[in-house]
Amino acid sequence: MKFLPALLAAATAVVSTPASAAYITRSYDFTATFGALSPNKVISGSFTMEFDPMARENAAVRAFSSKQLDGYQFGGASFDNGNVSFGNCDRTGCRAGSSTNTFFASFKVDAEGNVVSVRDTDFVYGKALTCCMTWQSTSFVVNRVGGSAPAVPEPATWATMMLGFGVIGYALRRRTVLRFV
Length: 181
What we know:
Blueprint: H1 3-15, E1 24-33, E2 42-51, E3 60-65, E4 76-80, E5 83-87, E6 102-109, E7 115-117, E8 123-126, E9 134-136, E10 139-145, H2 155-174
Helix pairs in contact: 1-2
C-alpha cells in the first residue's frame, strides 16, 4: 500500500513537467509571376522549413532550390506568429545593388505548417546588373508538399499510460482469490 502513493507522486511530477520544443518540418513549392518588364516572367522553386510553432522563433530552411534564383545567395528564414519570411533581404531593404542579387518572400501558416494566406505581391526580387531596380510579383502561390507525419506522444502521455498499467498491476496483485478446498 505504501507503493501506490509514491507512484502517484512520481507520475504527478512527470505529468506536470512541460514538454520540450516540438519542431515541425514542412516542405513547400512556390511560384511567382511578374509583369512584362521583369527579366524573369516566372520564378518557381521549393524549400523545406523547420520551425517550432510554440516558440515563435526563427525558422531553419533546408534544401532551398530555384532554377531562376540560381545566382542568388539564400539569406535565411524567420517564423513569427505564423508569418513566414525568407530570402536574402527584408521587405524594406530589398534593393538590387551593384554586387548582390536580392529576393524576399512571405506568407502565413497555421501551427501545423499549412499555408493560410499568401498575398499576390509578396515576392520581390532584384538583379545586381540592373542597379536599384526591383520587381514585385503579380501572383505568388505557395503550396505545402506532402502529408503530415503521425504525432509522437509527449513524455507526460507516456507517464500517464505507465501509471495506469502500474495501478492495474497493483490492483491485480492485491486481489484475493477465493479457493475452494
